Fold this sequence. Notes:
Layout: H1 8-31, H2 37-48, H3 55-76, H4 80-83
EC number: 6.1.1.9
Protein name: valine--tRNA ligase
Catalytic activity: tRNA(Val) + L-valine + ATP = L-valyl-tRNA(Val) + AMP + diphosphate
Amino acid sequence: GQDVRFSYEKMDASWNFINKIWNISRYILMNNEGLTLEQATANVEKVVNKEAGNVTDRWILHNLNETIGKVTENFDKFEFGVAG
C-alpha cells in the first residue's frame, strides 16, 4: 500500500461523492418499490432492443456500459483510486 496524507479537501470531495451515491440509491429505491429483478431486467432489455425507451435512455445505458467496462478493467488491475 501507499501512505496518503490526510486532507480536509479530499475528505470533503469524498463526502460529496458518497452523498451523491446515497441520494441516487434512495431515488432508485423509492421509485421502484415492488419491482423484481426479472421485471427490471426485462425493462432494460426492451430499451436495449429499442422496443421501449427513447434516445436518452439508450444514451444513458451506453454510457453506463462504458463506465462499467472501465471500472472493471481498473479493479482487475487493482487501481481502486482510478476506478472510483
